[in-house]
Amino acid sequence: MHRYLPHTEDDERLMLESIGAKSTDDLFTDIPRELRLGRKLNLNNSLSEIELSDHMKGLSNKNKSSDNLICFLGAGAYDHFIPSVVKHLAMRSEFYTAYTPYQPEISQGTLQAIFEYQTMICSLTGMDVTNASMYDGATACVEAAMMAVENARRSSIIVSRTVHPEVRKVLKSYMRFRDVEVIEADMADGITDVEKLKPLVEAGTARVIVQNPNFFGIIEDLTEIEKMVHANKALLIDYADPISLGILKSPGESGVDIVAGEGQSLGNSLSFGGPYLGFLATTSKLMRKMPGRIVGQSEDADDKRAFVLTLQAREQHIRRYKATSNICSNQGLNALAAAIYMTTMGKKGLKEVAEQSAKKAHYAMKQLTSSGKFKPLFNKPFFKEFAVMGETPAGKINDELLKHNILGGFELNNEYPELKNGLLICVTEKRTKAQIDKLAQEMEVV
Amino acid sequence: MKNYNSLIFELSKEGRKAYSLPPCDVPDISLDSVIPPSLMRDSEPELPEVSEVDVVRHFTNLSNKNYGVDTGFYPLGSCTMKYNPKINEDMANLSGFSNIHPLQPEATVQGALKLMYELDGMLSEISGMDRVSLQPAAGAHGELTGLMIIKAYHESRGDKKRKKIIVPDSAHGTNPASAAVAGFEIVEIESDKNGAVDLDRLKAVLSDEIAGLMLTNPSTLGLFEKNIKQIADLVHEAGGLLYYDGANANAIMGIARPGDMGFDVIHLNLHKTFSTPHGGGGPGSGPVGVKSELARFLPVPVIEKKGDSYILDYDRPDSIGKVKSFYGNFGVAVKAYAYILSMGGEGLTDVSRKAVLNANYMMSKLKKYYELPIDQVCKHEFVLSGLLENDNHIATLDVAKRLLDYGYHPPTIYFPLIVNNAIMIEPTETESLETLDSFIDVMIKIAEEAKEAPDILKTAPHGTVVRRIDEAKAARSLILKWDGTYLHKE
Question: Are residues A312 and A359 in the same domain?
Answer without folding.
Answer: no
